[in-house]
What does this fold into?
Amino acid sequence: MNSLLETPWVQVVEVMPLSGQRLKVRLTNNKELTLNLEPLIQSRDAYWHLRQERYFLQVSIDPIGGICWLRPEGKDLAPDGLERYL
It folds into this structure.
């Protein structure tokens, strides 16, 4: 997404799904992270759709620079807390 809003926090500019419920993420500060979301997804019922690979692969970036999945129920991860998933 090229039209990120200007914010005081670092934003995601690129996200790519990997195996094992992980994401490769590049931030506006050029830092690259590999986020292991498996513990989050497996422990919280709110993320149960993301246990299915077909939904997990639909990851995208929301307008404030966070990670989101629009379907089926609109899940997201706020950009200001991404580093906790390293």
Observations:
- The chain has a mean pLDDT of 85.
- Residues 12-78 form a domain with the NE0471 N-terminal domain-like fold (CATH 3.30.2020.10).
- The radius of gyration is 12 Å.
- The beta strands are 12-18, 22-27, 32-36, 60-61, 67-69, 75-77.
